[in-house]
Amino acid sequence: MIGRLNHVAVVVPDLGAAAAKYRNLLGAEVHHPHDLPEHGVTVIFVTLDNTKLELMTPLGDNSPIAKFLADHPQGGMHHICFEVPDLAHAARTLVAGGARILGDGEPRTGAHGLPVLFLHPKDFDGTLIELEEVKPELQPG
């Protein structure tokens, strides 16, 4: 069901400092910050050859990751994101298998402008999983 690893998200206390480490110390391609008010975060994507990192920091006191940062003041891994070709089908299959979808169960628009769902970490060995719908490209011929 799951496709490729889309990204690993890391919560950081200082987005600018984290971006500078990845750019200057590790030589990675670091993009510009984007506020995502609907998710309560500011993110910067770091592009790697085989995937991306999503550096995240709270956007306001009501951010859903503010508690994470309070519990982990130095930051840490927040979630991993896998691509799926059909999010509705994936959700039905997961729920039928006993997995829980966070929130109201309806897809939201993620940081890439695509539909996403989050799966309860207690159902996946303590790991928060994001599923992002990415339609396979049509192959010519």
Which whole number gives the mean pLDDT? 93
Report strand %.
25-35%
Number of H/I helices? 3
CATH topology: 2,3-Dihydroxybiphenyl 1,2-Dioxygenase, domain 1
Question: Rg, please?
Answer: 16 Å
CATH structural architecture: Roll
Strand count, sense and barrel status of the largest sheet are:
9 strands, mixed
Outline the low-pLDDT stretches: none
Order of helices and strands: EHEEEEHEHEEE
So what's the overall shape? globular
Enzyme class: isomerase
Family: Belongs to the methylmalonyl-CoA epimerase family.
EC number: 5.1.99.1
InterPro entries: Glyas_Bleomycin-R_OHBP_Dase, MeMalonyl-CoA_epimerase, MMCE/EMCE_epimerase, VOC_core
Please characterize this protein's 3D structure.
- Strand 7 (108-109) and strand 8 (115-119) form a beta hairpin.
- The chain has a single domain, classed as Roll (2,3-Dihydroxybiphenyl 1,2-Dioxygenase, domain 1).
- With 141 residues, it is of the alpha+beta class.
- The protein is built from 3 helices and 9 strands.
- The mean pLDDT is 93.
- Helix content is 19%, strand content 34%.
- Strands 1, 2, 3, 4, 5, 6, 7, 8 and 9 form a 9-stranded mixed sheet that branches.
What structural keywords apply?
141 residues; alpha+beta; 2,3-Dihydroxybiphenyl 1,2-Dioxygenase, domain 1; nine-stranded mixed β-sheet; 3 helices; 19% helix
How are the SSEs placed, and which strands pair?
Blueprint: E1 5-11, H1 15-25, E2 29-30, E3 34-36, E4 41-47, E5 52-58, H2 66-71, E6 76-84, H3 87-96, E7 108-109, E8 115-119, E9 128-133
Parallel strand pairs: 1-5, 6-9
Antiparallel strand pairs: 1-6, 2-4, 3-4, 4-5, 7-8, 8-9
